[in-house]
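Collaborator request log, item 7. Partner lab (contact: R.S.) asked for a structural prediction of 4Fe-4S ferredoxin to inform their binding assays.
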Amino acid sequence: MNSKKVASINKDICVCCGACFQECPMSAISSESGRFMKVDPSICVGCGRCAGICPAGCITVSDRKPA
Ligand code: SF4
Ligand code: SF4
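Returned to partner:
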């Protein structure tokens, strides 16, 4: 189920615009207290669509760490 890549969001930069939330085909992104967004790594498939659309450039897609 897990892909080799996973997205993560820098909450210090996120402006909570919701673009990544709308773009994610897996619904892996949700709001954390309405202040910033977070990725559920157990759902994310690492497609990178969220990182491509984020206007603040705060999403990175990187290799998953070995379990
Ligand atoms: S990398 Fe793809 S699946 Fe993962 S959170 Fe971003 S849009 Fe969703
Ligand atoms: S697209 Fe970027 S700035 Fe907008 S909510 Fe997502 S992570 Fe935050």
